[in-house]
Specification:
The relative contact order is 0.11. Helix 10 links the parallel strand 11 and strand 12 (about 300). Among the domains are: about 40-100 and about 480-585, Luciferase, Domain 3 (Luciferase, domain 3), CATH 2.30.38; about 140-280 and about 295-320, Rossmann fold; about 590-710, 2-Layer Sandwich (GMP Synthetase, Chain A, domain 3), CATH 3.30.300. By secondary structure, the protein is α/β, with parallel strands linked by helices. GO terms for molecular function: acetate-CoA ligase activity; ATP binding; propionate-CoA ligase activity.
Length: about 725
């Protein structure tokens, strides 16, 4: 699937740049015929037929899909009931209320016993070090989940309880979350890169009665003493009057000493892991195992508990509208305390299973790899629940893209013959800086579909991803969705929908988008404004845990009758949707509304720019002007001449109104552990305001100091 009229040209060529930078690209990339021939949805016409039915007959459409799953009791009443209008009463969404099921049963027992796929690999685990590997089949995973479910039951965990999980990307993390689901307990997973204070806040907010964590782990060359952080969090909880009675600890870095035979006492990974674990540990000076503290009466070893647990555990049958998990989003971190998004059993199961199947065009022989951490919604939906519900084989990756070298991802793709690959634009832009060679030295012949998630992908990165990683033959599914939506909302289907670089294209089944103006009026045809959704889909969140009023205010109050995403969006003449960024990332310059994402895209199209972020800055005349942070590619030097080139490029791509007043050299950008740029912090830096608020989620705090020292003092 080559570039139109330029099949042999590099994506960095001028023609590609012109196409990438166009505000409304006229060209699109059609799905390759070989993908369409075998696709679940093989044509644009078929997509439109299915989408129309999903909106006009939602009960029948999702009811047919529900038949593929196991229900202990069927839905006794209305399949769907809801209210999106705050002026008409309480906001609520109910799918299949009264039907009973268990999501763990559906992603494991059903796959092993009904689908007869017990011996199929569920996960290839790839550790931080390339030689650290193992695999686990569906049958082995089911046994481990049943054992740990029995462990939790013995600790008093039952339906409705909340369990906090604070772990790196190891198989025990999947086991723990599925064991909670099997018992009807809610898991609240906290990303292992978060601070002890963040963990404490989340434990307190959801009233977790038990914590599951790990001794320590390496992230690249960095040692993270997770048990120490967990201890600090539990101490803070104690000080605030909420003692957590039990902490179960996986011996991860110390698992080598547990390998004494085939006894079930050893900590998973279930099969023998890497050579370092199979024999004598090969300690490297930089990979030291830390001494961990032990709190008698609170701390318990995972492997000791598992040794005593039985292999069978009857699942707890749950109502389709019973809560499944709580996941905290930082979307409103500048305004509120952490927001616990609550998802429920039945609707979430239907939606993530269906989006996984159709968006990635999943087939039985696929090897799927989503690089996201399970600590985020992408990992919940497309590392754990979505793939397992389809009986897929996935890669579970503990490491980072640049360790031990920048070809790590492509080495893994070649090693496991990955067919469907899903990652973030941040990772793509990071790896672009190192050129094509780290990618092309590894075979990517197995790849069939590429995907992006987390933020809008700028066209330049899209073109590089398509040309270099996908060898101009793999469709790219640029997915838009949120923690709150549970699964994909706007996305191409790889065999059906022509792609435009940077566009999330069209809505998924059951999704009815609209674009509103400030007055709440729906805009038709080509338009730009607020992105909203007009009716519920099964995966929508049901509430903010413990604060339904906040749920209603945040998502439904501004425009009654609609779910408000908080994102800006435009629709082009072909009906394609383009996410322009968070509404609070829209800038009003001299009365003109500008999208920061659009300006950032224009900046990174320049060959010298690896990454860019744009924020608003007060201006005495314009009201607001553009302050740009740019990170340069290796080999390029920041200079007044480059500044003028970048301004010229923005004027040409967007118009004179978008010419920035400030362009600052940025050695790096402050990002959260999930790769999101913290524009809140950048706004403070631009205004020389050192009152930054909570920066505990910043990966590298030293970048903030550097950015303050490089501030632009005068208009350029």
């Amino acid at each position: 699937m080559g570039l139109p009229e330029e099949r042999s040209r590099s994506g960095s060529g001028s023609g590609a740049r012109e196409e990438a930078g166009a505000r409304s690209p006229t060209r699109s990339w059609s799905p390759p015929p070989e993908v369409s021939r075998s696709a679940h949805v093989p044509s644009l016409q078929r997509y439109r037929e299915l989408h129309r039915r999903s909106l006009e007959e939602p009960r029948e459409f999702w009811g047919d899909i529900a038949k593929e799953f196991y229900w202990k009791t069927p839905c006794p009443g209305p399949f769907l009931q809801y209210n999106f209008d705050v002026t008409k009463g309480k906001i609520f969404i109910e799918w299949m209320k009264g039907a009973t099921t268990n999501i763990c049963y559906n992603v494991l027992d059903r796959i092993v016993h009904e689908k007869k796929l017990g011996d199929k690999v569920a996960f290839y685990w790839e550790g931080n070090e390339p030689e650290e590997t193992t695999q686990i089949t569906y049958r082995e995973l089911l046994v481990q989940v049943c054992r740990f479910s029995n462990v939790l039951r013995k600790q008093g965990i039952c339906k409705g309880d909340r369990v906090a999980i604070y772990m790196p990307m190891i198989p025990e993390l999947v086991v723990a979350m599925l064991a909670c689901a099997r018992l009807g307990a809610l898991h609240s997973i906290v990303f292992a890169g978060f601070s002890s204070e963040s963990l404490c806040e989340r434990i307190l907010d959801s009233n977790c009665s038990l914590l599951i964590t790990t001794d320590a782990f390496y992230r690249g060359e960095k040692l993270v003493n997770l048990k120490e952080l967990a201890d600090e969090a539990l101490e803070k909880c104690q000080e605030k009057g909420f003692p957590v009675k039990c902490c179960i600890v996986v011996k991860h870095l110390g698992r080598a000493e547990l390998v004494t035979g085939d006894s079930p006492s050893q900590s998973p990974p279930i099969k023998r892991p890497c050579p370092d674990v199979q024999g004598k540990p090969k300690e490297k000076p930089k990979h030291i195992r830390p001494q961990i503290s032990w709190n008698e009466g609170v701390d318990l070893w995972w492997h000791e508990l598992m040794q005593k647990a039985g292999d069978e555990c009857e699942p707890e049958w749950c109502d389709a509208e019973d809560p499944l998990f709580i996941l905290y989003t930082t979307q409103l971190e500048a305004l509120f305390s952490p927001q616990g998004v609550l998802h429920t059993v039945g609707g979430y199961m239907l939606y993530v299973a269906t989006t996984f199947k159709y968006v990635f065009d999943f087939h039985a022989e696929d090897v799927f790899w989503c690089t996201a951490d399970i600590g985020w919604i992408t990992g919940h939906s497309y590392v754990t629940y979505g793939p397992l519900a389809n009986g897929a084989t996935s890669v579970l990756f503990e490491g980072i893209p640049t360790y031990p070298d920048v070809s790590r991802l492509w080495n893994i793709v070649e090693k496991y013959k990955v067919t469907k690959f899903y990652t973030a634009p941040t990772a793509i832009r990071l790896l672009m800086k190192f050129g094509d060679e780290p990618v092309t030295k590894h075979s990517r012949a197995s790849l069939q579909v590429l995907g992006t998630v987390g933020e809008p992908i700028n066209p330049e990165a899209w073109l590089w991803y398509h040309r270099v990683v996908g060898a101009q033959r793999c469709p790219i599914v640029d997915t838009f969705w949120q923690t709150e939506t549970g699964g994909h909302m706007l996305t191409p289907l790889p065999g059906a929908i022509p792609m435009k670089p940077g566009s999330a294209t069209f809505p998924f089944f059951g999704v009815a988008p609209a674009i509103l103006n400030e007055s709440g009026e729906e805009l038709e045809g080509e338009a730009e404004g607020y992105l909203v959704f007009k009716q519920p889909w099964p995966g929508i969140m049901r509430t903010v845990y413990g604060n339904h009023e906040r749920f209603e205010t945040t998502y439904f109050k501004k425009f009654p009758g609609y779910y408000v995403t908080g994102d800006g969006c435009r629709r082009d003449k072909d009906g394609y949707y383009w996410i322009t960024g968070r509404i609070d990332d829209m800038l009003n310059v001299s009365g003109h509304l500008l999208s920061t994402a659009e300006v950032e895209s224009a900046l990174v199209e320049h060959k010298a720019v690896a990454e860019a972020a744009v924020v608003g800055h007060p201006h005495p005349v314009k009201g607001e002007c553009l302050y740009c942070f740019v990170t340069l590619c290796d080999g390029h030097i920041f200079s007044p001449a480059l500044t003028e080139e970048l301004k010229k490029q923005i004027r040409e791509k967007i118009g004179p109104i978008a010419t920035p007043d400030y362009i600052q050299n940025a050695p790096g950008l402050p990002k959260t552990r999930s790769g999101k740029i913290m524009r809140r912090v950048l706004r403070k830096i631009a205004q020389n305001d050192h009152d930054l608020g909570d920066t505990s989620t910043v990966v590298d705090p030293s970048i903030i100091t550097q950015l303050f020292s490089h501030r632009c003092l005068t208009i350029q």
